[in-house]
Fold this sequence. Notes:
Layout: E1 9-14, H1 44-50, E2 62-66, H2 70-80, E3 85-89, H3 95-108, E4 114-119, E5 123-124, H4 127-141, E6 146-151, E7 162-170, E8 173-180, H5 185-194, E9 197-207, H6 208-218, H7 220-231, E10 234-236, E11 239-241, H8 244-248, H9 255-260, E12 266-270, E13 275-276, H10 281-287, E14 296-298, E15 301-304, E16 310-313, E17 318-321, E18 326-330, E19 335-339, H11 346-355, E20 366-369, E21 372-379, E22 383-390, E23 398-400, E24 404-412, E25 415-419, E26 422-426, E27 431-434, E28 440-443, E29 450-458, E30 467-470
Amino acid sequence: xxxxxxxxxxxxxxxxxxxxxxxxxxxxxxxxxxxxxxxxxxxxxxxxxxxxxxxxxxxxxxxxxxxxxxxxxxxxxxxxxxxxxxxxxxxxxxxxxxxxxxxxxxxxxxxxxxxxxxxxxxxxxxxxxxxxxxxxxxxxxxxxxxxxxxxxxxxxxxxxxxxxxxxxxxxxxxxxxxxxxxxxxxxxxxxxxxxxxxxxxxxxxxxxxxxxxxxxxxxxxxxxxxxxxxxxxxxxxxxxxxxxxxxxxxxxxxxxxxxxxxxxxxxxxxxxxxxxxxxxxxxxxxxxxxxxxxxxxxxxxxxxxxxxxxxxxxxxxxxxxxxxxxxxxxxxxxxxxxxxxxxxxxxxxxxxxxxxxxxxxxxxxxxxxxxxxxxxxxxxxxxxxxxxxxxxxxxxxxxxxxxxxxxxxxxxxxxxxxxxxxxxxxxxxxxxxxxxxxxxxxxxxxxxxxxxxxxxxxxxxxxxxxxxxxxxxxxxxxx
Length: 479
């Protein structure tokens, strides 16, 4: 076994998931972990990495995310100036396969560091207390233990799993007696009163080789398939793509079920910092700032005779009168209104939208792409108006459309426009026309964002009417 002084802490951020209980802000193509829902200036994902600042002996992180979110991850890392390896999952398989991917990546690069596994969507407020808990976990992980972290319950919470303490290892860590599923209210109250239980924070520390050893003992099928899938991985810049067919054949399972509940070599470290997994709007209300009446407000909001209510206005004025313990969330294309006690039921709305194949389950009116974003301003039967923003140095693919023509008007910056063999420059207030069937590309070679208004006309305006001939981001289809 390596001496602890030789092992670094390697953050592994699990950035998959949709966060359906935070709909309509969190959606499949732009989930909660990549949004700044607290108004802090950072997304949850960015804050997960930032809270490690000042912790000694850390190395560049690994991010495990869904293929469809790869450019969101890359852009938010770029803004932070943070280098990272990005491992892409073809689909979500829960935490055990995701962590196994990261562990195989570490060992394949000749290391056996202490993995610090963190979900990308949690809130931890006292960073120094968090660091102290990590230092304790590090010492245990260097002794080949599999370490998780527990938060002392402050209420009979039914939305969290629980960990029952075993014998003490030191003042702040214990052997694990057992893991408990999310309880009903009566059971949660009993856990709280006993003083023997932690909330399961979903954070872990262990050596990569020790985790894979235990995974091989208790869930050998997962370990074997992920090893094969990673063995056939290909690298594209900072992205690592595993073998899709092999990965899809792996069963989904959590690290708790696959390893932690079965291993005899586990420990839980007390995490005294204020923590939340922000799993629902009621949880976001709890960690947000409140006014004198207990209300949490974002955006253009007017309240009268309202208390203990969350109101989130994204695109227009929202007025609320006589509400108590409610949540009101407004976006450009959807509004959610519900009592906070039913916050967990939002996922049922999302399931209904998905079953009906409605776009509101997956995308916002503003859609992010690797080159920037576009926003639908107006959509009718034979025309659509979009606002398009292209990042400095970025370029859309060389493409054509079979069913629509486009008019482009530059409102900010300078556009380089390719139309078949012709290349022209457009500055603010200038415009051009892209006929149906003509190859075209939009590029921003300037140093400020390029914004244009695009007016589409034609018999079909769907995003899948794109034929790509060249794309610097290696995309195909309508993404």
